[in-house]
Amino acid sequence: MNLLARRALVLLALSLPAWAWALDFGFRPPRDPDDPAAVDLMRDLAQRIVPVYQEADTDAFLANMTALQIVSGTYRAASDSSRSLRSRQQGKPFDGLAERAIVDGIYARARALEANERLDFAKAFARAFQELVSPLDNAQAAAIMARLETPLAVYREPVRQAFDRWRAKGSLPQADAVALVRTWLGYESRRSFSALLPELIAAENRGRYLAEADVRIPVRGGIVIHANVVRPGGAKGALPTLLRFTLDPAEDDAQRSAVKGYVGVTAYVRGRTPDGKGAVWPFVRDGEDAAAVIDWIARQPWSDGRVAMLGDGYSGYAAWAAARRKPAALRAIATIAPMAPGIDFPMAGQIYRNAMVRWAQEHAADEPLRADADASPDAVWQELDARWYRGKRPYWDVDRVLVGKRSRLIRTWLTHPSHDLYWRKFLPSAEQFAQIDIPVLGIAGYYGAEAGALYFHNEHRRNRPQADTTLLLGPYDAASIRLGTAAQLRGYTVDPVARVDLPELRYQWLDHVLKGAKKPPLLQGRVNYQVMGADEWRHEPTLDSPVRTRLRLYLDTRERNGPHRLLPSPPDDGGSTRLLVDLADRRDARIPWPDALHGKQLPMRNSISFVSDPLPKDTEIDGSLRGEFDITPSRQDVDLIVSLYEQTASGEYQLLFEPYDFRASYAGHRVYRRLLRAGERQLLAFTAERVTARKLAAGSRIVLVIGINKRPDRQINYGSGKDVNSEFIADAKRPVRVRWHAGSHVEIQNGKP
């Protein structure tokens, strides 16, 4: 929109009667976004806003006016407004506003072509798409296509919520009216063009990239590794390669790597094809096969001889498995929540998870478990967990109960409950860690996505103190790290500085290593962690420092009528308190375990809590929780769960790290099982394989919750002293009892004063 046109609109607004300046618009929303009346109602609303809409910021004015004009049906004017906004964005960073101008511009142009040239909408949209997307560079085009492909459901729910919000009020202020029009446009436009995108995007990508599907890469013994290779079209000369070695086709990001100016290769573990077919035996050959793929890449004419590996979860493990073999072309690895066999999978704290059966069925079996089409996979597996929990069979039979047949893979895993040689052979030895001399990046979260990353980082630093290894930690779980950090995570409002596109950050780090780009400021320290509640990042040489002070809190074990306390010193008169849990009682099979990180209720099941006095001032804590319990157990073993919360002055609870459950007999050493002495007083020291960092507000309390594991999705330890896999529910006998004595304490590092 040119300056004269804008002035004309302003003059029109100034000539309107006083009622037009009320900035409040009558509106009776339809029943739902799919109500046939919704289109006309939203058009009427937009038409009433356009003559009076003003905004001091020219870019914001043009962006919002484009949306208002599209919804009002004045498509040519909308196309002109969008063109003006795009012109203003020339030479500026390609940010969300620039993306919005192009996405809205495509739709406005398509509707204008449809109306003015009598084109079929599909042809009009294809023409508009090509006009606006083709001139963009690869990264810009990829961003636009990703934005266009945002699922329709993402836009429908906000529209429904907005309709519900304003239905009873009958009117809405101008700012909210404009926001509603924008939200509606996102939904209505995608209803029109979503079905057209696959063909258009595929054609656009064919012109930009050279893709080879199902490339066969020979390795030793006549084995073939299947791979997808994507190269940027028109690249001059050889390029560095980013390799992901995986068993999950959903992780194929070879094209995303090509968008970033690399050759992208997604290779699949032996036995697996790019369509997800083929049974695999995890961990066994991944290191040598990945190293062979790296050697193959280095010999290709499109390779400049440098390869970096990226990976999440299992593919993160594969990157470490390759690194310990030191292939000459491997120059860096960048992982997100890497899996560490025997450390955090298939057990954690030496307690097996039923999730290993699901994982094996979905990622290692030839065919996944077939579920009811009307039920979500999560609901299906929760019901299977409940079935297992209510049964009376030993854990040896967990695969038969959950999937109806014996799994040789699961049986093999269950045969090795300690971190014995079977698991250690899949991980770098101390000598191999010491020789990994390439840059390493690890990204993890405080909520269940850190144990493997911590293990690899700590072992690398322990055995090679000068290692070029960088760790980033924040308030994330495995899903939010991979899919993008939103403002909300399981009820917790994430600090603004923590809302980072972590996969994108990984590419920025790889650009630093392989292309000489500036190192991302967020990764300036060896350990970089976000302090929840402070909206700040810390950059330190290490997370747990021997020179930092630690906040130690003692369990008040005296009998009390109210909650037990956490004290800064041991109680003078000793005493003890006990927790009694009936492991045979399965009436809670269908009661869901809480998943929220923030709430008004303290989650308590089979547990006991200890609460500190209010903090006299803001207190920052970070690092791992350690503890030493002075206990008398009634059995030879017990599985404990330790959680830590901040209770705010308003009475709400914030979980500080994912609850840590561990087998007491392995607390001192995960390789050797040392049974407890039933009925005798003894010390149990532990370090939670979790980390956190939070600024606790003055007036808050620290809450420690200690429980005994009795979850439907876990192996249950009955404490008989036998192999836990062989124990039956009959081994529960009487309820298990643990008594805590004075002197029991926990401690965590004090952060910045």
Task: Briefly say what this structure is.
By secondary structure, the chain is an alpha+beta fold. The chain is built from 22 helices and 30 strands.
How would you explain this protein's 3D organization?
This protein is an alpha+beta fold and 753 residues long. The protein is built from 22 helices and 30 strands. Strands 17, 18, 19, 20, 21, 22, 23, 24, 25, 26, 27, 28, 29 and 30 form a 14-stranded mixed β-sheet that branches. A ten-stranded mixed β-sheet has the order 3-4-6-5-7-8-11-12-15-16, sandwiched between helices. A hairpin with a 2-residue loop joins strand 13 (488-489) and strand 14. Helix 3 packs parallel to helix 5 (96-116). The radius of gyration is 29 Å and the shape is globular. The two termini are 54 Å apart. Mean pLDDT is 92; it is low at 1-22.
Lay out the secondary structure.
Blueprint: H1 3-14, E1 24-26, H2 38-49, H3 58-72, H4 75-89, H5 96-116, H6 121-133, H7 138-148, H8 152-167, E2 171-173, H9 174-193, H10 197-208, E3 209-218, E4 224-232, E5 239-246, H11 254-259, E6 263-268, H12 286-298, E7 303-312, H13 314-323, E8 330-336, E9 347-348, E10 351-352, H14 355-363, H15 377-390, H16 398-403, H17 408-414, H18 421-424, H19 430-435, E11 440-445, H20 451-463, E12 469-474, H21 478-483, E13 488-489, E14 492-493, H22 502-515, E15 527-531, E16 536-540, E17 550-555, E18 564-567, E19 576-581, E20 598-599, E21 607-612, E22 619-633, E23 639-647, E24 653-655, E25 660-663, E26 682-687, E27 692-696, E28 701-708, E29 736-741, E30 745-750
